[in-house]
Write a structure and sequence with these properties.
Length: about 240
């Protein structure tokens, strides 16, 4: 379908209000701005993946991508296909995987970068959003898009905060006050230099102890770091530090 046709599908679904979850009794779907973003980002022939199923799945199919959607309930998949057929959407490039994402993704995605776009909108219990992000992003092409839904949920929010700090991700905006879009602009470093990772720049975090002890531990750490820096600049002082402990 053309972009205009895909947008028409979004408009129609907002009127039809199809229900795909819990045998049609519930609607847990991406919101209009997020659906419009999928239309803008997804190109015919792209390889796309979605953790979750819903209106967004229909939009990916309408956009002509080679799309895979993962969820535990095969009835959801059946209902999405039926709606696509009722509305004249070609679902021949739509593939469903039944199962939990943390089981399905490792087998489905290799380290080869084959995804043009992905949407993470599955289980929100910690640490599932982090696990989903790990497997999805290592399969995303440079220049590929990632949509992360429900970022107000704390388990999802920490993924969002990490991505905002990383220079290899370009932040493209927030839709419906809950879904974030990013573009991968560079591959990650191959070494595991976690100290230089922006997400860890606040190390150490002693907030797990009471305030008096937290302040004491933080000050001890700062003093140690200051001695290391001074000792690197003035090697003669290293011996003095060792004597005084």
């Amino acid at each position: 379908m053309t972009t205009a046709a895909a947008l028409n599908i979004v408009e129609r679904m907002l009127i039809d209000k199809p229900s795909f979850h819990l045998s049609g009794a519930a609607r847990w779907d991406a919101l209009p701005e997020t659906l419009d973003a999928i239309v803008r980002f997804a190109q015919p022939g792209d390889t796309t993946l979605e953790v979750g199923v819903g209106l967004s799945t229909v939009v990916f199919a309408a956009s002509g991508t080679n799309h895979t959607a993962i969820s535990c309930d095969p009835d959801e998949h059946k209902r999405v296909r039926e709606y696509c057929q009722q509305t004249g959407i070609d679902d021949s490039r739509l593939n469903f995987v039944v199962g939990m994402s943390d089981d399905a993704l490792p087998a489905l995605l290799t380290r080869g970068r084959m995804l043009d776009m992905a949407l993470i909108d599955g289980a929100h219990s910690f640490p599932v959003p982090v696990v989903d992000w790990h497997y999805v992003t290592r399969a995303l092409k440079v220049g590929g898009r990632l949509l992360l839904d429900d970022i107000p949920v704390p388990a999802v929010a920490q993924v969002f905060r990490h991505m905002k700090l990383e220079s290899r991700w370009r932040f493209d905006g927030i839709f419906d006050d809950r879904a974030a879009a990013f573009t991968l602009i560079a591959l990650p470093d191959q070494d595991d230099d976690w100290v230089r990772q922006p997400f860890n720049m606040g190390f150490p975090d002693y907030s797990f102890v009471g305030l008096p002890k937290q302040l004491r531990l933080e000050n001890t750490y700062r003093l140690k770091r200051m001695r290391q820096r001074v000792g690197q600049r003035y090697p003669v002082l290293r011996r003095i530090y060792k004597r005084i402990g």
